[in-house]
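assembly run, all chains below
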Amino acid sequence: MSAGPEAWAGRRLGAGPGGDDEPGAAFRVVGKALPRVDGVQKVTGATIYADDIELPGMLACVLLRSPHPHARIRSVDATAARSLPGVTAVLTSEDLPIRFGPLPISQDEEVLASAKVRYVGDPVAAVAARDEPTARAACKLIEVDYEVLATVGSIEEALEVPVDEPIHGDTEIGNIHRFVALEFGDVDEGFALADHVREDVLFYEGSNHLAMEEHSATAVFAGDQLTLWSSTQAPHNVHRVLSKVLELPMGHVRVVATPHGGGFGGKVDPFAHEVAVAKLAMVTGRPVKCTLTREEVFYNHRGRHPVLMWVRTGATRDGKITAMHFRTALDGGAYASLGVATTHYTGALQTATYAIPAYRFEGARVFTNKATCGPKRGHGVPQPRFGLEIHLDKLADDLAIDPVVLRQQNFVKPYTRTVNGLRITSSGLEEVTEKVVAASAFRRRPRPVGHGQGFAVSAYLCGAGFPMYLNRMPHSEVNLKVDRGGVTVFCGATDIGQGSDTVLATLVAEELGLARGDVRVVTADTGLTPVDLGSYSSRVTFMAGNAAIDAARKMRAILVDAVASRGGQPGAAVRVGDGGIGEVSFEEAVALAEEARGTISTSGSYAPPKGISGRFRGSGVGPSPAFTFTAAVVDLDADPLTGEVRVNKVFVAHDIGRILNPVLVRGQVDGSVYMALGEALMEEQSYRKGLHHHPSVLEYKTPLALDMPAIETILVETIDPEGPYGAKEVGQGPMLPVVPAVVSAIHDALGVWIDEVPVTPDKVLRALDQRAKGGEGRVGPRRFPDIPYPPCTKVSPDAATASL
Amino acid sequence: MLRLPVFSYLRPGSPVEATQMLADHGGRAKLVAGGTDLLPKMKRRQLAPEVLVAIGHLDALRQLEVSPSGAATLGAGTTLSQALRHPALREQQPGYLEAVRVVSTPALRNAGTVGGNLCVDTRCNYYDMTEEWRSAIGFCRKAGGEVCRVAASSPRCWAVSSSDTAPMAIALGATALLAGPDGMREVPVASLYADDGAAYLALAATEVLTALRLPASEGWRSAYQKLRRRASMDFPVASAAVALHLDGPVVDGCRIVLGAVASHPLEVPSAADLLVGGELDDDAIDRAATEAARLAKPLDNTDLSFPWRKRMVKVIVERAVRQAAGRA
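ok done. output:
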């Protein structure tokens, strides 16, 4: 099904500045190792984060949260709290009756719980007082009469008949939130063609994003206009929710995303505290701020879903995959969040790396009385990628085929369609594999007991192909203001530390022939900047970047035209660059254009092309205008006496499309490796009777800077036909193969399989003990539960590719 | 964010004045030097002293002397980083510094003190949490509650001794200098501790630890092994301090002290005795380490699993013995 790039391209923007499509396009700014535009402010402490905002007369808001994992609320009495000196207002559920959620189909959250609480930390009341200690003291005076209900604490418990009542009243079967059941191609026939069939059960523990900055929001209501400053990744989502819950027109709400101390998916959802401070500002007429404690961040969560997986693969003797059946069960926590999308993602991208001719996916998300899970770096993809890669290592073992060769034999080719309808365009999968294997000397690795290497590959999106709410508008929009006052880019995109402001400045400077410092960037302010859907799904460089190039190229044409008209020469003869347009300086060119045309703002926008997905229910999750591909090798030592693991070095080769800024790209790879090692070896969002074990940064273990191993990053440029100058994402993809590569390397070192992460020392020792007693030398889930999945929707190859 | 409760901050001019201030405020005052242990606990309302008596600034507590013989006196207010940088101490007391080096992070060693680490509060998964968390699960015996959350039927608190330097100081035969209303006294470091996670210090409420005295090595060789999740910062979940004296190939003195497997540093003489009088062969080391692990009784109240911690005591004792023996 392979075709050339021409047959696949959506809107081609050309690989170089000005639409120049020459392979050797000369860049002046792109590709240079420049520091980030906000770097100096951040490292000198000058950046104003959300919690730094102090306004005259500002009140402090604290939320009273449930101490019970599951309980009915009989009554809430805030009388004593309201009469405490220093308290200005106390809100309870009657003040905010409208439900919300990030997805239109999942509007299941209340700002303040009315009838019941569903996890420890569920907000029940909101206090505004002169300062935080007073607000906290007032919270202690609020009397809540709870009727405690049985706690649902795990996937297994959620699959049982509810003891008291289901966590939510509107589920069809007990505490099962959502099913997905899809079949592509003839899976039974595929298994019949197999010479060997293998099954595995694996588990991936949940984890928190652990952004250094806790969430914070400040609201002001003045003149019928609400303004909210918040450390959100998606001001557009917050904007929509505030408008809905507060019943204000969109035009009366302004949401400003403040500079971030990290997001990683933990600030994509709209949150109760954001709505509460807005309502309190409306009620009191005073500015109101709420900054969460670290403990509250663990309760807010929306982190990695714990996922139990079962995978069955059929292959021919020589290692060609004939069919795959993948089942997942997601522990969703108390509310829906983006969990419907997460559930789909646990089955969507297995086919993006391996050409699986027949594929069946069954997924189920359950509700439990724990903090709500949602999107975290990789959103639903790291768990099945871990499961799949470990499973393929074992399959390679069964067939006595080299694990790299087994994978290579099944690699998806560039410019093809997957069986589930994903449009794959540029792909460096072959090249990243070859390069990482060579750099790590994987095939020649020394193998004394206790030393090992593991290899894995992965794929990830460059932005979700569809928005969170159905519409045909652009996903990202840019306004460009150029006048005698300078050049300013306005874009709704939110810089959460990934460097999107730097990317926007880079692209506009490149198009207009300016130095990067000549471009001012105003972003993430719904009152000033046009819409961008938010910083999630690795979409910003690709989508906002393309919108910025679109706007800048229009501006470039205007300036070129103004200069050309004056000189009476054709536009094509006017060179752009080094601060000049043709024979005149950039400033003179701007003056000429203003003289000729008046105000010369331009706009650009981006929407993914049509035809990147199949046409079936559920086809909206997975497709993307482009995919990145990553391969990793992890080198480690594992102590056979203690079970402790020390990672020596991580090799990552990533298909970046084009490097817009190597400093930012490498920073994202470093951060991805860091996060992957935490999830592989340490992090556990775990509970005891519905209470988080350790909602504290000291007790919740995650690697520190001093724990980091050496990282060797290899970047492969594939120049994507639709990316901005060919660029693709790097924020999430490089994390994915590292987790399975760690587990594979432990097997390489000690000969035992730990089929669940995190791998702790006691698990390694248990597996070694078992092997010493003649057992299989494996620790992991024993069985996959019986889940009443509905019959699969059988998607024919025609429907999978129908929209082509 | 978590904020400190309101408290008075007193700055005495001498250790004696500090003891007087403690006496004046009864049980409502706490000593503070580096504050790395106390202040986070106050933010979490595990402790809410009305008065803090600062001693970190006192010159009398910041002396660091090493005699020509190698004996050392470290003022309790000496920071761990100062100790690590001291050339004579590095030369004469490598065993002690091996334990100091693995206390927390460089930044916290810059603030944390020699006395502070010896007196560091016992730790427990049910105790080192915020007030909100503890109120959700129910307060424990160590802070405002009636029962021990890790051993509900037990009449005592099982919080874990979490000092790295205490087991080592005991293994080295160190002593502590205490200032009190009735003057100074010098006691073995081991006698600073009580076997009770709640009242873990055996000092009088008005006493101030002023200095740690490490004896000259006189041929003793030592080693410290520590287990924790992160080599970058964590408290121990099990540790072993070993001091050995050899006469030719024969062990003629041995002390083994375990950390983080009890509410106090746990000296295991019956394990050490299995080495004394014989050569350090594999069998002897195995028997001693097995005995040490038998005596360790970790409970499920730190990071990592407690059966693993108990089992690991054998490994770390074995490693510490071999490491100590290998040192000159």
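The radius of gyration of chain B is 19 Å.

The mean pLDDT of chain B is 96.

not gonna interpret more than that til we talk
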